[in-house]
Backbone:
């Protein structure tokens, strides 16, 4: 009962912990051999569906009440839950949408590009996650794909094109230029 309800709440957008990254930590603490192959497949399918939906939304792209969640926190959430992030990164790379590109820009700007290392508190004890993320972000093909998307990015698509609500005096263009 617990896991289906947890995933249901997550899908509904409920706050399950003080940090998104920790939402599925309890799942990751389970003995994975206790799950059947069908249950593993269901968890992986949920992760892919949730991630695809996540990449389709970004608060700068919609005038809705969608609130921002860092994409790297969401990936770390799945990693902590025992879900491989490789297939999720493949989906991100193949998702040619403005929201997916904005997630790349914002998450990379705040959590990677300054030092070219993953800078996330809950990832400090996750060397495999940090290595996977760094390899993906530094991969020449990945960088070329996102560079092409950024060069063609239409700033008029943004709902909040003149400022960022993060306490800093940055515009979305500043983050794009910084990535």
Residues:
């Amino acid at each position: 009962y617990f896991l289906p309800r947890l995933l249901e709440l997550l899908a509904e957008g409920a706050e399950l912990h003080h940090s998104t990254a920790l939402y599925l930590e309890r799942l990751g603490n389970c003995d994975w051999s206790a799950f059947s192959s069908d249950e593993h497949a269901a968890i992986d399918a949920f992760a892919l569906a949730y991630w695809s939906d996540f990449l389709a939304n970004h608060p700068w792209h919609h005038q809705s009440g969608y609130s921002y969640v860092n994409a790297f926190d969401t990936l770390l959430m799945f990693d902590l839950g025992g879900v491989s992030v490789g297939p999720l990164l493949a989906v991100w790379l193949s998702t040619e949408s403005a929201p997916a590109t904005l997630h790349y820009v914002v998450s990379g700007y705040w959590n990677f590009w300054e030092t070219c290392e993953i800078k996330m508190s809950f990832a400090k004890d996750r060397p495999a996650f940090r290595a996977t993320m760094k390899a993906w972000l530094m991969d020449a093909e990945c960088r070329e794909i996102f560079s092409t998307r950024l060069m063609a990015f239409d700033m008029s698509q943004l709902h909040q094109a003149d400022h960022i609500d993060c306490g800093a005096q940055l515009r979305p263009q500043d983050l794009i230029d910084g990535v």
Q: What stands out?
A: The first helix runs from residue 2 to 11. DSSP finds nine helices and no strands in the chain. The chain has a mean pLDDT of 81.
